[in-house]
What we know:
The structure is a homodimer. Chain A is of the alpha/beta class.
Amino acid sequence: MKIHAVDTYDIRFPTSLSLDGSDAMNPDPDYSAAYVVLRTGTEHEGHGFTFTIGRGNEVCRSAIEALTPLVIGQDISNLGAFAKRITHDSQTRWLGPEKGVIHLAAAAIINAAWDLAAKVAGKPVWQFLSDMSPDAIVDLVDWRYITDALTPAEAYEMLLEAVPGRDERTQHLLRHGYPAYTTSPGWLGYDDAKLTRLVREAVSDGYTQIKLKVGADLADDHRRFALARAVAGPGIRIAADANQRWDTAEAVEWMTALATYDPWWIEEPTSPDDVLGHADIRQALTTAGPGGGPIRVATGEHVANRVMFKQLLQANAVDFVQLDACRVGGVNENVAILLLAAKFGRPVCPHAGGVGLCELVQHLSMFDYVAVSGDLTDRTIEYVDHLHEHFVDPVIIDRAAYRAPRVPGFSARMKPESLVRYAFPEGEAWQQQP
Amino acid sequence: MKIHAVDTYDIRFPTSLSLDGSDAMNPDPDYSAAYVVLRTGTEHEGHGFTFTIGRGNEVCRSAIEALTPLVIGQDISNLGAFAKRITHDSQTRWLGPEKGVIHLAAAAIINAAWDLAAKVAGKPVWQFLSDMSPDAIVDLVDWRYITDALTPAEAYEMLLEAVPGRDERTQHLLRHGYPAYTTSPGWLGYDDAKLTRLVREAVSDGYTQIKLKVGADLADDHRRFALARAVAGPGIRIAADANQRWDTAEAVEWMTALATYDPWWIEEPTSPDDVLGHADIRQALTTAGPGGGPIRVATGEHVANRVMFKQLLQANAVDFVQLDACRVGGVNENVAILLLAAKFGRPVCPHAGGVGLCELVQHLSMFDYVAVSGDLTDRTIEYVDHLHEHFVDPVIIDRAAYRAPRVPGFSARMKPESLVRYAFPEGEAWQQQP
C-alpha cells in the first residue's frame, strides 16, 4: 500500500468565544487542527492531524507540505522506517531537531500513516499495536539518544514478559474501558457557578478525578479549589494545572499554599523544557501535602520529544508522564515514551482535550495497558467534552471510562462537513464571525 | 519609530553542489535564510533573518508571516517589551513553546528590530548594546524560567561591575578585533588533499584553532585527524564536531579513540536536548585527553532556548557555550544566555557559518567582552569563509580576528541583487539548476 497523494487542511474552531480551554497561559484559544489525508488510489485513506490553538495553524500546514516529498510513493508496510525517513531528513530536521512545528507536522503525517495501516489491517490502532510481536514493536522506535536509559534488548524483554497477559487485559478493556478524568469543570474562564455545577456533574457521572486550572491569581485559586473540594468531597482526586506559569520557587510556594485542598498533582508547574526545575519542584513538594504526603508532579503536553521525557524520568522529575498524541513524532515516538515510562515505573496519564486528542490518545493508553505496562494503577486519560461531534468515530465515555474503540483506524477522521465548515479562513464558520 | 510593514523573502544558496557545510548529520545542505525587512515609512529599515539548510525555509517564512500581526504598528523604543510581545503570544507560543520554527521566526524579527534600532542610534549593534546602562540591559531579558539560576538583581550587579572597564575593552576591540577560529578545512565532504591544504592555509593565516567534522566513520576520523594534527603541529587547537551523531556511550568511546590527536573540544556529541547526556559525556571525558587532561564538551547551535542553556550550565554539562544568533529568540534571549554563561564562568564561543551567522554573532561576542564577561580567555568565534559576498557590510577577518564593525546596524543586510538572484524558487540561481 503506497501513498499517492497528500491533502492538507487548516481547520479552526472559534472556541475563544466561549472561553472553553482558557487557562493561565492561554486565555483565548481557538482549537485548531493542521489536518492531513494520505491518499492511496484505493478506498483506504489515512487521516491525521496535529493540534494547535489558532494563529500559526497555517505554519503547521506549511510544515506538513514541506514533508510531503518524503511521503509520496512511500509504502506503509514498515512504519518504523516510514517514521524515521521523516524525522531523519537532514534539511527539515534542522528546523527542530525533533521539536516544535516540524515535529508537530511529523506527528500529523505519522499518525495518519497509522490510521491507514490499521484500517488496512481491519483493526483499531490500539489493537493493531497490541497484536504486534515484541520485536516488531521494538523496531517501531527510533532508539537514537535514548539507549543510555533503555536499550532495545531491555525493551524486548519487557514486552515479551507482557505477552501472556495480553488477551486477559484486552478482554478487560472491552468490558470496562480505560479510566478517564475530566478537566471540563476547571477552565479559568468559567465563573464559580459554572465551576460548582460542573464539579457536581463530574462526580455524579462517576469521575474519581477532576482537574482545575491554577496559576493566574492565588486568591482565585484558593476560592476555586475550596469550592471544588467542598462539592467533590475528600474522596475525589483534584489535580491542578498551571500551564507553565511559574518559575521553580514560585511553583513551590504557590502549591504549598494550596496544599490544604489536597491537590493530587501539579501539572506543568514551569517550562516543559526545565527537567532540573521539575526535579527541584518535585523534591520540594515531597512532603508538602496534607499529613506530610507528596504533591505529585506531572508534565508532558509540551515536552518536545523522547529525549526530554527520558531526562524527566532519569532525573526523578515527574510522578506522571503526560504524553500527547500529536506533540511528539506520532505513534512511533509515543511507543518509545511508553517503554521509557514502564522502565522507570511511572504511570502514563496522557494529555487530551483540544480537538481530537482524546480520540487519538485513548489508543496509546490502551496499547500501554495491553502490551507494555500491563497496569492500570493510577493511570487515567484526560477527558474534555469538547468538539467530539466533529469526528466520524468519536470517543465514548461510559461511567467515567473511555470505551475501547472497535472501528478500524485511529478514530482520527473528521466529518467531511466539518472540514468544509471550519476551514480557515474560507469556511462558513469563519465567514460568519464579526 | 514604528513598524509600518513587514516584507519576507525565501533566500537559498545551492551550496550542496560543492559539499560546503557537509557533516555527519547534514550531508547536503543548501544554506538558506528566511529573511525579513521591517519597514518604517522612513529611510530606516530593519533587516534580519534566520538560517536554515534548505527544505523547510518556506515554513520559517510562513512563521514570520504568522508573527507579523504582533509587529505591525509596534514601536521599537523598548526592545525588551517588543521581544516579549512576540514570544509570549499564547496562540503562536503553543507551536514551541520558544523552540523550533516559531522561535527561529521570532529570532529573525527580533534581530531585524535590533538592526533597525541600532541604525536609528547610528551605532553597530555591539556598541549600541555596550552603551546601555546595566538596568536597561537587565530589562531586555525575559526572566521567566531562569531566576533559579540567575536573578535580575545578580545580573545587574555583574553588569555594574563591568562598567568601569568598558572603554578600555572597546578600544582593545577596535585595535585588535575578536579572536576567530576556522571550520573551513574540516567539512566531511572534502578530500584529504583539500583538508591538508586548508589546514596549512589556516595556520599560515594565523589561526590558533581549527575544527574538524567527525562522527560518520571512525577510520576516516583517525586519518583526517592525524593529517590535520601533522600539518598543524602540536600548538594549534583542533576541535571536533560530531553534529549530534552519537548516543552518550558511543560519544565517549569515539572520542576516547581520537584522544591521541589531542582534540580541544567535542562539539554536539549527542542530541542538543540531552542535558544529562552531555553531563555524563563530559564527566567521562574529564581525564580522557593526552596526559590525563580533559576533552572538553561544547554545544549550542541547536540548543532551543535560555531554559536549556541554563540547565547545561547547572548540570556542569558543557565547557563552552555555543550560542547561535538565530536559533534562540534573537538578541534579547542571547543577552540572557551571555549573562547565564558569565554567572557560571563558562566561555561563550558562538556558532557561526551558514549564511550571515558570522555577520550577526560577532556583535554578541563583542558586547559580551565589553559589558558582560569582560574576558577573552578561551573565547573565540567560529568563522567559515562562505557567502559573505552577499552582505552589504560583511565580516572582515584580519590576522585570525573579527574586526569590530563600524557601520550602524547588525551587519544583517543582504545585497539587493542577492535577494533577487537567490530567491527560491523563482530566482535566476535556481532557475538555472538542472
